[in-house]
């Protein structure tokens, strides 16, 4: 039976955080234990062995997961993560967050996540292709454009989605682009998808600042993570006039109090693969970045970086969560005590899945929209979701996180209850 709470309140795993967040929302909503248990428990999980024949002929074995947390509002939806440390509990947490995220921005999906225990940086493209195709073929019975739709996450990209789509399609006997999103444009991807999460983060930041009468061009920012989300977010912030004073990646960070030249930094990353060594700023580490005296802090890397200790050092007035689960439950409490406004992940980084939804709709209709249409619709969704969340937060006197969670959880619970139990 699913444990409804973390074993100890100090637990800082993503699943402990996700469960504690759900428990908080359930309490606010006054739901029964039975309903709480339904909402806490994944509908379906699959664990698969993923063997790989390496380029040198050796055999290695990875574990793959796909967790479908909820499908009450539509097909399961969520990314696929390649990372050596992935485990089933992390995938469960990420799947649960996808459920609330899709509900908060009102796209007709449930939530899912996949993972394979591989560090993609250590393998050739040919090896990654074989791993991806084998994983896809193992989970084939539970995925599909009406069942469960995959997208990129940490360690995967457009190419991974093309291989998943091709493997699925070849086995079905015809091309089914809507089985994945975040694909290359050449095989039914959507304009604007590659930058959608980052654009959404910037819309969410602008909206939160706007509530305090502040504009993006008036603030300074630090961005942790310079990958698919953090790099574009830094550029869009810079373009909006924000002074982006620091960025970092896994290897370290750089800072310049007058603001970094993001275009020059991007060129440096393109040639060296890291922000470290960029001569347009001084070196700092990831810990220092989180504690910088900036207005806006954007964690755009991994889970759990803002635990109670790191949260106690945050000087920013706003934390906009571009990563999934960057703040632990305890960290959240500390930030709240310090008066930091946290724009929660399930709202702030929902731009990715919003444009994934647009990609799926376009693929289903075999009719492609212009970039303008996509960008305008994305902004509209983000602003509408922000307004709804901010209104609940003000009316109920709760945090933006609790407001977003109660909206998401309520929508899922409503769908679940209206459908009823079978038999
Ligand atoms: N991996 C992204 C996320 O965590 C995108 C998911 C999707 O588009 O399905 O939101």
Would you tell me the structural class of the helices and strands?
alpha/beta
Distance between the termini: 20 Å
Average residue pLDDT: 97
Q: What order do the strands of the largest sheet run in, or round the barrel if closed?
A: 9-8-7-6-10-11-12
CATH topology name of the domain at 196-343, in short, is Rossmann fold
- Helix count from the secondary structure assignment: 15
| Strand/helix succession | HHEEEHEHEHHEHEEHEHEHEHEHHHH
> In the CATH hierarchy, what is the class of the domain at 196-343?
Alpha Beta
Low-pLDDT residue intervals, each spanning 5 or more residues: none
- Report the count of strand segments: 12
Helix content: 40-55%
The CATH superfamily of the domain at 196-343 is identified as: NAD(P)-binding Rossmann-like Domain
CATH architecture of the domain at 196-343: 3-Layer(aba) Sandwich
Strand content of the residues, in percent? 15-25%
Radius of gyration: 20 Å
Small ligands present: glutamic acid
Shape: globular
Largest sheet: 7 strands, mixed
Binding site for substrate: 77, 101, 356
Binding site for NAD(+): 197
Active site: 113
Family: Belongs to the Glu/Leu/Phe/Val dehydrogenases family.
């Amino acid at each position: 039976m699913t444990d409804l709470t973390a074993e100890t309140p100090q637990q800082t795993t993503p699943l402990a955080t996700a469960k504690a967040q759900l428990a908080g929302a359930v309490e606010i909503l006054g739901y029964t234990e039975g309903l709480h248990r339904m909402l806490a428990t994944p509908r379906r999980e699959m664990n698969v062995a993923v063997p790989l024949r390496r380029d040198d002929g050796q055999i290695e074995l990875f574990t793959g997961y796909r967790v479908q947390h909820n499908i009450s509002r539509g097909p399961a939806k969520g990314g696929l993560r390649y990372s050596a440390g992935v485990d089933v509990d992390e995938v469960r947490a990420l799947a649960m967050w996808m459920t609330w995220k899709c509900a908060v921005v009102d796209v007709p999906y449930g939530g899912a996540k996949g993972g394979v225990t591989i560090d993609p940086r250590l393998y050739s493209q040919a090896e990654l292709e074989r791993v991806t195709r084998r994983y896809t073929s193992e989970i084939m019975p539970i995925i599909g454009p009406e069942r469960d739709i995959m997208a990129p996450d940490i360690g995967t990209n457009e190419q991974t989605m093309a291989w998943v789509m091709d493997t699925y399609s070849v086995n079905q006997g015809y091309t089914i682009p809507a089985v994945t999103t975040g694909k290359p444009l050449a095989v039914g991807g959507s304009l604007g998808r590659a930058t959608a999460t980052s654009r959404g983060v910037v819309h969410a930041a602008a909206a939160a600042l706007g509530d305090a009468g502040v504009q993006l061009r008036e603030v300074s920012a630090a961005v942790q993570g310079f990958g698919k989300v953090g790099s574009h977010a830094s550029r869009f912030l810079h373009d909006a006039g924000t002074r982006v004073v620091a960025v970092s990646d896994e290897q370290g960070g750089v800072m310049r109090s007058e603001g970094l030249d993001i275009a020059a930094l991007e060129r440096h990353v393109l040639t060296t693969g890291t922000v470290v060594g960029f001569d347009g700023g001084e070196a700092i580490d990831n810990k220092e970045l989180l504690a910088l005296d900036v207005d806006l802090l954007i964690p755009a890397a991994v889970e759990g970086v803002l635990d109670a200790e790191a949260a106690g050092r945050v000087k920013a007035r706003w934390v906009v969560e571009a990563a999934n689960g960057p703040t632990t439950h305890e960290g959240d409490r500390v930030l709240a005590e310090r008066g930091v406004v946290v724009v929660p992940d399930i709202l702030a980084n929902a731009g990715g899945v919003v444009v994934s939804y647009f990609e799926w709709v376009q693929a289903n209709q075999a009719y492609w929209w212009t970039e303008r249409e996509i960008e305008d619709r994305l902004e509209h969704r983000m602003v509408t979701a922000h307004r709804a969340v901010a209104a609940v937060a003000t009316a109920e006197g709760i945090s933006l996180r609790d407001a977003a969670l109660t909206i998401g959880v309520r929508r899922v619970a409503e769908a679940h209850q209206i459908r009823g139990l079978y038999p």
